[in-house]
Amino acid sequence: MDIKTLRYFVEVVRRQSYTQAANALYVTQPTISKMLRNLEEEVGSTLLIRDGRKLMLTPSGQVLYEHAATILAELRELENALEDIGQMNTGTLRLGVSPLPGVQIAGPVSLYRQRYPGVTVKITEHDDAAAREAVLNGTLDAALTSSPVEQKQGFAALTLFSHPLYALVPRSGRWLDRKSVDIATAARYPLLLCSEESVLSQQLMADFARQSITPEVAVRSNQWDFLVEMVQAGMGVAIVPAPVCETLNAAALRWLPLDSPLRWELVLFWRDGVWLSNSTRAWIACCQTFWPASET
One Pfam family for this entry, by name (predicted)? Predict the structure, then answer.
């Protein structure tokens, strides 16, 4: 018993005619008749009896017809659902973000929603280690991080952007004539940095260590706005990436280029060597559209 046989049987019952069923299914009437004889032999019971011009279902035929009709209806729903997913009319994108890069993804998410309004986007915040684990075990389709991602770890990765770092200082006194700030100069003041777990903070502390500098870290936070407020309050110097400076108040603050090779990057990564859903492929394409200079 297979789907084709059930389809032939249901069509005969609905049309009350072997000939009309054969025409609708684009097969010959003998093909229909043979298929139904084989079906009756398989179930061990007569399924249809003729009463004049009418085909009547036997009790076994009635049970088989009801179940077959349900199976065929569910199959059509499955085919439609798969077609919708294939055409991006439905589906789900499960995306992980780490706290600091998360503020940068509103643009590509908006673009994605415009292109694929039927796809549900689920965004959850993870630290870098948890995001890697979730992508590997399939809980997430892809994730965004500011830390390097190596292919040998089982991931494929796309660097979306790379920004220089700035020293954020008050617009006053000693800072007014400066054009830039080096690591050693920044370390003379209380520093306002992101959390110890963040890759940016770890890279900065490693840079200080290479120069045998032990800075005073006055404040740690993954909230850029809070660090900006602390600079305005005179708490110290914040090290921030270029995008944070784009909306700052130039009348109260200065952001001076940090003389350091360090950069703040956003990396999109997903599991390598496995099948990717259409929604994930579309997200990768949206990111490449939004950040044309992105590189794998």
Answer: LysR_substrate
